[in-house]
Amino acid sequence: RERTERMSVEVERKFVCGPDIQTRLNDLAVAVCLGCAQFLDQYFDTPDCRLTLRDVWLRRRQGSWELKCRDGATRRRSAAESRQQERGGDALCTRYREITELAEVIARVREELREGDHEQAARVRDGQMSPSWVRELCLFPFAQFTTERCSYILPMEGEEEEVEGGGTRVDLDRTDFGFCVGEIEVLVQSPEEMDSALRKIERTAQRLG
User: Which of 20, 133, 171, 184 is deepest in the core (most CB within 10 A)?
Assistant: First the structure.
């Protein structure tokens, strides 16, 4: 039987953390702490910011490459749909695909920069791309910082339909330059799960105050 791979979409909502946010989470008896970690991020772009201006984020985290980009459905939203969503809580949420396979990262970056050619794309698929691809695409690190992250899972109250994986993830990040930000995240596997994910994020935000 042919197996079709599905790529998860991260539906997330960021918020600025107050000094008491961890206390609030710890006061929620159902919150499960997944632990804390520290990692170094480097973000890359072209000198004229061609990736970030398209809301595409290329980073190297602890030596591993990752690419975050908007899912196709979000990019195709009409202006009318955007205005309608801005009247609700959906405007506070973003949807990103996270790509971690190096060959796919390189291929997608080339696509975004519109510099790909068939011969080089074939080498990428075959895993023969030179380690110098960053230099070849004129990419450079424009930001580097260390982050301390504490992660939690919050099960939902009641019997609301769950998206795959169950619960809502909350990450609390503190950077080495003093910025604190939180993120409420739900992973979805199909467009049909999007509304449920948005409801879960909104309810979690209300519980966190």
Answer: 184
> Phi/psi at 160 (nearest 5 deg)?
-60, 140
The model's confidence at residue 25, banded by pLDDT at 50, 70 and 90, is confident
- Asked whether 146 and 177 are in contact (CB, 8 A), the reply is no
CA-nearest of 116, 96, 118, 95 to 106 is 116
Does the residue 69 lie in any domain? yes
Per DSSP, 162 falls in state P
Contact present, 46 and 58 (Cβ < 8 Å)? no
Place of tokens 């990103």: 96
Total domains in the chain come to 1
Residue 78 pLDDT grade (very low, low, confident, very high; cuts 50, 70, 90):
very low
Q: Kindly state whether residue 41 falls inside one of the protein's structural domains.
A: yes
The answer to whether residues 43 and 66 touch, using CB atoms and an 8 Å cutoff, is no
Task: Identify the domain containing residue 180 by its residue range.
Answer: 9-208
Would residue 182 count as lying in a domain? yes
Task: Write the DSSP symbol of residue 31.
Answer: -
In a domain, 1, yes or no: no
